[in-house]
Amino acid sequence: MAIKTLSAKAAAALDRELMSTGAFSIDQLMELAGLSVSQVVHRVHPLSKGPRVLVAVGPGNNGGDGLVAARHLRHYGYEPGIYYPKRPKNELYQRLTKQLEDLEVPFVDDFPAALQSADHVVDAIFGFSFSGEVREPFPAVINAMAEAKVPVTSVDVPSSWDVDEGPPKSGVGSNFHPDVLVSLTAPKPLVKHFKGRHFIGGRFVAPAIAKKYDFEVPPYQGIDQIVEVDRDGHKL
C-alpha cells in the first residue's frame, strides 16, 4: 500500500480550512508543528549525543516552526543556535524571536562556521509552498547542510526540494538528502524520494478533515505528538 500524501495545492487548502472552519489560529498551528519537530529531534538525537542544535530558519511559516522547535529544545536542555538571515516584520515572528532572546538563545550570522560546532541541524528554511530558484543567502546554507558531517532533520520538506517531485535534478539541493524528515499534518508526495527516518506530526487533525483530504491520521502513542512510519506509511 502506497503512503497517502498531500500535494502542495491540497496542503495549502488544508491549512486555509484549518484556520477557517477548523478554528485554529496560525499561532496554534505553528506551536503544534514546532512541538512535533522538537519531539522528533529529541527522539533521534537525545541529549547524550550532544546538546548543540543549529536551526536554519527561513522567512516563512516553515521558519516559524523552526523557531518554536528551538524554544522547546532549549527547555529540554539543548543548546540551540539560530541562523535567521531574512527576518520578516510580521509580529508573530518578532514574538517568536523575542521568546528565544529571553531564553538567551544565540542568533548566528555565519552558518558554515556555526555548523562546525553543531551536533545536529534542523532545516526549517523552505516549506511546501517553495518553488523556483533558491535565493541568497540560502544556496550556501543548503550546500553546507548537504555536506554536513552531523545529522540533519528537515521540517515538512527538505529545503530546495519540490513538494511533488522531490530533489532538483541539478544545482542547489540536488545532493541534499537529510537524515530525518518530519511531515507536518500529512506526508507530501516527495516522500517517495526520501530514504531516511520519516516521522509524521499532526496530532490535532479532526477525523472529518482527514477524511475530506483523504489521508490517514496515524496511531499516536501516549502523549507523543509524533509517530515514525515506514515507506508505506505504517507505524514503526
Automatic annotation (TrEMBL):
Keyword entries, A-Z: Cytoplasm, Isomerase, Metal-binding, Mitochondrion, NAD, NADP, Nucleotide-binding, Potassium
InterPro entries: YjeF_N_dom, YjeF_N_dom_sf, YJEFN_prot_NAXE-like
Binding site for (6S)-NADPHX: N61, N62, G63, G64, D65, G127, F128, S129, F130, S131, G132, E133, D156
Annotated cofactor note: Binds 1 potassium ion per subunit.
UniProt domain YjeF N-terminal: residue ranges: 11-216
Superkingdom: Eukaryota
EC number: 5.1.99.6
Residues annotated for K(+) binding in this entry: N62, D123, S159
Reaction equations catalysed: (6R)-NADPHX = (6S)-NADPHX; (6R)-NADHX = (6S)-NADHX
UniProt key word Nucleotide-binding: yes
Cofactor: K(+)
Listed PANTHER family: NAD(P)H-HYDRATE EPIMERASE (PTHR13232:SF10)
UniProt-listed NCBIfam families: yjeF_nterm
Protein family per UniProt: Belongs to the NnrE/AIBP family.
Role noted for this protein: Catalyzes the epimerization of the S- and R-forms of NAD(P)HX, a damaged form of NAD(P)H that is a result of enzymatic or heat-dependent hydration. This is a prerequisite for the S-specific NAD(P)H-hydrate dehydratase to allow the repair of both epimers of NAD(P)HX.
Protein name listed in UniProt: NAD(P)H-hydrate epimerase
Organism: Remersonia thermophila
